[in-house]
Amino acid sequence: xxxxxxxxxxxxxxxxxxxxxxxxxxxxxxxxxxxxxxxxxxxxxxxxxxxxxxxxxxxxxxxxxxxxxxxxxxxxxxxxxxxxxxxxxxxxxxxxxxxxxxxxxxxxxxxxxxxxxxxxxxxxxxxxxxxxxxxxxxxxxxxxxxxxxxxxxxxxxxxxxxxxxxxxxxxxxxxxxxxxxxxxxx
Amino acid sequence: xxxxxxxxxxxxxxxxxxxxxxxxxxxxxxxxxxxxxxxxxxxxxxxxxxxxxxxxxxxxxxxxxxxxxxxxxxxxxxxxxxxxxxxxxxxxxxxxxxxxxxxxxxxxxxxxxxxxxxxxxxxxxxxxxxxxxxxxxxxxxxxxxxxxxxxxxxxxxxxxxxxxxxxxxxxxxxxxxxxxxxxxxxxxxxxxxxxxx
Lengths: 186, 197
Prior knowledge:
The structure holds two protein chains of two kinds.
Chain A: H1 3-22, E1 27-29, E2 33-35, H2 38-49, H3 51-66, H4 87-106, H5 112-142, H6 147-155, H7 158-178
Helix pairs in contact in A: 1-2, 1-3, 2-3, 2-4, 2-5, 2-7, 3-4, 4-5, 5-6, 5-7
Chain B: H1 17-33, H2 37-52, H3 62-81, H4 85-108, H5 111-122, H6 134-164, H7 173-195
Helix pairs in contact in B: 1-4, 2-4, 3-4, 6-7
């Protein structure tokens, strides 16, 4: 199989997966930041595709949102979402996916169990830590919060995101058993 | 999947997509770098007037507007509670200006036109191996996959409900991912045969 065509298919596919996760209803928290399943897509893209393809998948998804497709949870889309208080999280998604992929690539993933543990660590670093750092920067700059207030605000999401890391690890474990030839982390 | 574009034609539909994007980029940068309340009030008032001038075309944007109002009220109330009314006003005015113009751009520009502008903006990256013309193929494939996988998700959920009497929820996430990865390999083969790359 040609790697270029596989790249096109995988990048589009994971962008679509994140869009599908957006069809599942969101929960709005104070400061206008929603809890969505789409961050799970960021973690899965990093673990499954590796850094480069995961970055491309998330950039493609955000480009599709920017041109007006209603792909974010709650049917949101358009350039306007990049000026909202939660835009820091959105901008953090590609970087988070890239870091997740990079960490996954560096950790052991030969056995399903090893891949699952690596996926948990990689998603906690890339999909949780990195995305939240960008989210906090966004809250400070757009909602004009102080650093302390923004960090306290983002901590509300951490328990939910840790559950998403566990879900990501579970999916990776099942995929490692179902598709033994799949190369996690690229 | 439909875009948020409104078929109800307005004066803004006639303005080229590149000009609208450039205006939005300038506005976003401008309001970000000023703290002057009078400038921000003027900017927000202009943006509200421009948005209101779109008339019936704005009907499609109701959910987006509700989200904007919700976020503005929360931010405003939070800063009032923290006894920083000026900071709250600056944040809300910036949010109103940029988000309203972002929504206006989305409502009045076809996504194919924005795609062309994006491809044009990406063209200088050709020298590092980026192929801007692939963006259209990627977006088309992504939309096809989105519809397809939503159907697969519903089928898996129905099958799970028939077996157990409960909705699938997160339990069908792993089978869905495996279905997707297998489908991606098939699509990659097809693309390779068709485009020889």
